[in-house]
Write a structure and sequence with these properties.
With about 180 residues, the chain is mostly beta strands. The chain contains two helices and twelve strands.
């Protein structure tokens, strides 16, 4: 369960960069805020289609597409405080048979990103409390997403952290369109 107010103590167990000051995150549960007040928590509810996902490598300054130029993904926020994320690389392989080979399984795993959990939100950020993930090392972590909401466009900038795909320090910027 999400408490109505809690301090975020870590950005993840994935060796996030130190020195990031974080405030409190407030519950996205409907009974924690007045209905109809137009808060960020209310405005992010529903389904959002990913339109881009960029990664900035902090050591080199290089920016690239995380899963290629046209990632296929959704994030869903529910009124009961749940978040679900599924992202797929646009050009994923199709296995030759119903049961993929070991090589095909690895390629499929490396071309996706998925997790679910609860979330807490305030005016500046949403914190995803991961309780299941495509990569078990994310399970039990808190993933911080600083947010900008402009009409039907939601932009996240992640807290500096280790990239789960290659282990390098990075910042993720993800753009969604309400679907």
């Amino acid at each position: 369960m999400i408490s109505t107010s809690q301090h975020v103590q870590d950005t993840s167990r994935l060796d996030a960069l130190p020195g990031l000051a974080l405030g409190e995150a407030h519950s996205a549960r409907p009974n924690s805020r007045p209905v109809g007040d137009g808060t960020i928590a209310e405005r992010i509810l529903g389904n959002w289609r990913m339109t881009s996902w960029q990664i900035e490598d902090l050591a080199s300054g290089e920016t690239r597409d995380a899963l290629g130029p046209n990632p296929q993904g959704y994030i869903t926020y529910t009124p009961d405080g749940r978040v679900m994320v599924l992202v797929l690389k646009d050009d994923r392989i199709r296995p030759a048979a119903l049961v993929p080979t070991d090589e095909e399984k690895l390629a499929l795993y490396d071309s996706m990103f998925a997790y679910a959990g609860t979330y807490a939100v305030d005016a500046e950020k949403v914190v995803h409390h991961i309780d299941m993930s495509w990569n078990q090392s994310w399970t039990g972590t808190n993933q911080i997403r600083f947010l900008r909401l402009q009409g039907d466009r939601l932009t996240y900038v992640g807290a500096p952290a280790r990239n789960p795909m290659n282990g390098r320090d990075c910042v993720h910027t993800v753009v969604f369109q309400r679907s």
